[in-house]
Design brief:
This protein is α/β, with parallel strands linked by helices. The chain has 3 domains: 3-96 and 232-262, Rossmann fold; 98-230 and 265-271, Response regulator (Rossmann fold), CATH 3.40.50; 277-381, Homeodomain-like (Arc Repressor Mutant, subunit A, Orthogonal Bundle), CATH 1.10.10. Helix content is 49%, strand content 13%. The strands form 3 sheets. The chain has a 6-stranded mixed sheet, sandwiched between helices. It has a 4-stranded parallel sheet with strand order 2-1-3-4, with helices on one face. α1 (14-29) links the parallel β1 and β2. The protein starts with a strand and ends with a helix.
Length: 382
């Protein structure tokens, strides 16, 4: 007999959309007869009136307010929380390991030679606090004392210009170079805005990594924002599996199911190559700007206004590889992200990264990682 599942989550950001995709993958892989009702929520939202008496079989929820929690607390159906435990402690939780998110950023900064650190907390949910606590905990164990910057509040009623001015003053006081962790991508963009206002170079003087890897926000920020990518697909699959067990009468686990992040997507705000050699950093920016074009070492050197030999020598010193190899790797990394994060066809992705045919992209993938683009996508979506 089929099951009816209500999904009460926000879909404004990349992470919850990935969770839903993971849930769908689980249902498809297990050939389950589930139907869904999706209600898009937002922070502070009230519980939707027409779901107070939901008579379905299960729920996937993001509890966004105490009122929301109180309604869920009296509903006698299996449900999984995917946001956090700010408003409750007993509901089964499947989500990102936020402490590990912060620790992973601290490790990344330390491995890239930083000795000065700061963090930008975000007001609101407990998971923001868990992220910065993980960052602080890792660094304190290594003998570092990161500086706390003024709390970021995501609220359009606040005078953003005054906050950015204050944040810029605090960043200007920090000893440079400094590595800053922002508890979400919006806060990270505030850091770069504050640096731009004060004339502080990013990433040469201030490296910044945000959190959640909201691709649109990160790639449209100036400079492009590095960020921690969550494993929303795995969260969705695990949430689906747990809900399935509960609907079959099995007891829910007492401990939360916490999924570690996928890793850090490095973009311009923390690119060590820009810090090491500005010419090489500019070359990478040009690669990204011309990712859909046919680009080789000669054309890249012309765009940079330097000789081919100079470009080759400086790439070898800063990157350890040739410009041609860097171009191919950049295209493949972009293709990999598109394969995982979108449903675009192989032909469309090939065109977007500068290959005239999908067959050429397939050859590049086979030579690089021994898989076709289709195999690479399938391995990360099942």
């Amino acid at each position: 007999m089929g099951k009816h599942i209500a999904i009460l989550v926000g879909t404004q950001r990349s992470y919850p959309r990935d969770v839903l995709q993971g849930l769908r993958s689980f249902v498809t892989s297990q050939q389950l007869d589930w139907t869904f009702s999706l209600v898009r929520t937002h922070p502070g939202a009230s519980f939707p009136e027409n779901y107070r008496n939901f008579d379905g079989d299960g729920m996937i929820v993001q509890t966004t307010s105490m009122e929301f929690h109180r309604v869920l607390a009296v509903m006698q159906i299996p449900m999984i929380e995917i946001l956090g435990k700010r408003y409750h402690s007993s509901r089964p939780f499947v989500g990102c390991d936020n402490g590990e998110v912060g620790a992973s950023v601290a490790r990344h900064f330390e491995e890239n030679g930083f000795f000065k650190f700061a963090f930008l907390p975000v007001e609101g949910s407990a998971f923001f606090r868990e992220r910065v606590e993980g960052f602080q905990r890792y660094l304190s164990q290594k003998g570092f004392n990161p500086v706390k910057l003024p709390m970021f509040v995501s609220n359009p009623t606040i005078n953003d210009s005054k906050y950015i001015e204050l944040l810029g003053e605090r960043i200007a006081e920090l000893e440079k170079p400094v590595a800053i962790f922002a508890a979400n991508d919006e806060a990270g963009i505030a850091v770069t805005s504050a640096c731009r206002l004060r004339g502080i170079s990013v990433p040469e003087s201030v490296a910044v990594i945000g959190c959640e890897n909201d691709v649109t926000a990160c790639e449209f920020s100036v400079p492009q924002m590095s960020s921690v990518a969550f494993n929303g697909l795995e969260v969705g699959m695990r949430a689906g599996a747990l809900l399935d067990q509960m609907m079959r009468g099995k007891s829910a686990p007492v401990d939360p199911v916490q999924i570690p992040p996928l890793g850090i997507v490095t973009r311009e705000t923390s690119d060590k190559l820009i810090r090491r050699d500005p010419l090489v950093g500019q070359a990478f920016r040009l690669m990204d700007e011309n990712i859909a074009e046919t680009l080789d070492t000669d054309k890249l050197a012309t765009l940079l206004g330097c000789s081919r030999s100079t470009l080759h020598r400086r790439f070898r010193l800063a990157y350890g590889k040739s410009p041609g190899t860097a171009i191919r790797e950049r295209k493949l990394e972009k293709a990999k992200r598109l394969l995982v994060e979108t449903h675009l066809t192989i032909e469309a992705i090939a065109s977007m990264v500068g290959y005239s045919q999908g067959a050429y992209l397939q050859t590049a993938f086979l030579k690089s990682i021994g898989q076709t683009p289709g195999q690479f996508r399938a391995a990360r979506k099942l």
